[in-house]
Amino acid sequence: MRIVFFGTPGLAVPSLEAVAAAHEVVAVVCRPDKPKGRSKKPVPPPVKVWAEAHRIEVSQPLKLNDGVFEAWLRGKAPEVCVLVAYGRILKQAILDVPRHGFLNLHPSLLPRHRGPSPIQTAIHDGDAKTGVTIMRLDAGTDTGDMLLNEVIPIRDDDSSESLEQKLAGVGAEVLLDALDLLESNTAVFERQDNSLATHTRMYTKEDGRIHWNMRALDIHNLVRAFVPWPVAHSSFGGETVRIYRTRVVDLPVDRPPGTVIRVNRDDIVVATGEGALATETIPTPGKRAMPMADFLRGNAVEVGDLFEDT
Questions:
Q1: How confident is the model at residue 243 (pLDDT cuts 50, 70, 90)?
Q2: What pTM did the predictor assign?
Q3: Which domains does the chain show, CATH number per domain?
């Protein structure tokens, strides 16, 4: 089929690669290049990098609803548009351009976790499973009729980073199945049950702040959810410490939340509001994550020391 692909981050690249191998991708639409680093030099999004490397036309419109972009899209004559993490809202006039509409890959089991942060939220909320849903895009926020989904378990050691990689691979495969159904006119769409819907939001750096009076399991989920961003953090020894990896440990706790109750060769065990948590940290912002054994060689940590909420 003749396809225009909408997507921006790395999550969308496996889908773009799979679709381009099986169909005619005539153009790619992504967000504008984004300034990064101290130099604020514009950096192209991963989807653009892949498309240009494969000589596929790229459009990065600043405006979507002034009629100019709609005319451009009509000129491409797509049979269907595929959208994976594009990051902008499309109005109905644009959604109506392709004969088969827009197929959207959403990285959750809709109607659970609609909105901008389904992967982080699934881990943060302690979900045991997640998946991908292929739906027909409408003018709502992830409210369109569903065509296919695929369930995957969430491992206890999954972070948002690792789970995104898994979902990107699974999603690409399911998306191809959905396109096959469309092409053969055998696609059957199902309405979402809005009574079961949950909604996600954009997280901020403040959301990464650890409150040690929480349960150990809840802190563990927070840490996993916020890798690679915004990264869970606390105050220790007067410095901000970022925490990348934890595990819940079965130890009796008789100290206030945030107190170091054990220092091992490979971890520091900290009391929480319920249970204990073994942590891996880096000492200050801007430095790489390191194994706890390396951290402890250069930093004195003793039982009774305190992690604070700041």
A1: very high
A2: 0.93
A3: 2-196 (3.40.50.170), 207-308 (3.10.25.10)
